[in-house]
Backbone:
């Protein structure tokens, strides 16, 4: 009995010097949220793109999100994406609605197209444009539209998005957010340290109410109509 008591005391003493199992990192240490506010679509930047402009938001934005510091990790943890299912067609440009608070100094971004994103989470990378240089986004609460060429033929659901390869730095640009419009298919890829849950998740889990993100595309050669189960609206931008 005395031996058992000594053994228990020894275990307790050792436990005092063992490092405790770390809880998941608070994701709010590495996120930056601008809103809520009513943003203004201020400027249009980038090349003119052929085709029909497609997006899920309602032409208004109430917030801006971005990961920062450890929230960005290879291969593309910290990415944001928006899912679409438009049938078959040729993507000519990925469109991002962005803003900043003054920290942008020309950092490039990686622009992605993944498969999936409507009936399931984003999956394999279909194509990527590395180190895409964008013009300086508008200053919050203004939003600027950026047309980024990334030609790719799609025939099923897909997700467009971007990743900022600026690990362990402060936030540089923010993706515009529609908080109260029709439901789209927004995604963010949460790094393992910030879960569970991690991987591709609804941004609402971390950032708050999110109907859709400021992401769209120009689609050409679309022989089939929009599928009825698509959340997004199809809209044309006349300039």
Residues:
């Amino acid at each position: 009995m005395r031996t058992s008591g000594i053994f228990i005391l020894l275990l307790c003493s050792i436990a005092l010097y063992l490092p405790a199992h770390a809880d998941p990192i608070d994701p709010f240490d590495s996120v930056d949220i601008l809103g809520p506010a009513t943003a203004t679509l201020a400027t249009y930047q980038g090349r003119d793109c052929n085709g029909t402009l497609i997006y899920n938001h309602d032409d208004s934005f109430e917030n801006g999100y971005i990961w920062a510091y450890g929230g960005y990790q290879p291969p593309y943890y910290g990415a944001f994406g928006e899912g679409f299912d438009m049938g078959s067609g040729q993507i000519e440009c990925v469109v991002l609605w962005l803003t900043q608070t003054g920290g942008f100094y020309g950092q490039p971004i990686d622009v992605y197209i993944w498969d999936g994103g409507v009936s399931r989470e984003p999956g394999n990378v279909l194509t990527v444009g590395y180190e895409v240089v964008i013009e300086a986004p508008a200053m919050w609460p203004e939003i600027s539209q950026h047309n980024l060429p990334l030609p790719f033929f799609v025939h099923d659901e897909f997700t467009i998005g971007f990743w900022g390869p600026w690990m362990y730095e402060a936030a540089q640009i923010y993706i515009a957010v529609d908080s109260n419009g029709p439901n789209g298919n927004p995604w963010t890829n949460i790094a393992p340290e910030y879960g569970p849950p991690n991987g591709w998740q609804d941004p609402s889990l971390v950032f708050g109410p999110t109907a859709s993100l400021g992401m769209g595309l120009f689609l050409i050669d679309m022989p089939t109509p929009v599928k009825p189960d698509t959340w997004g609206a199809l809209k044309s931008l006349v300039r």
Observations:
- The chain has one domain: 25-234.
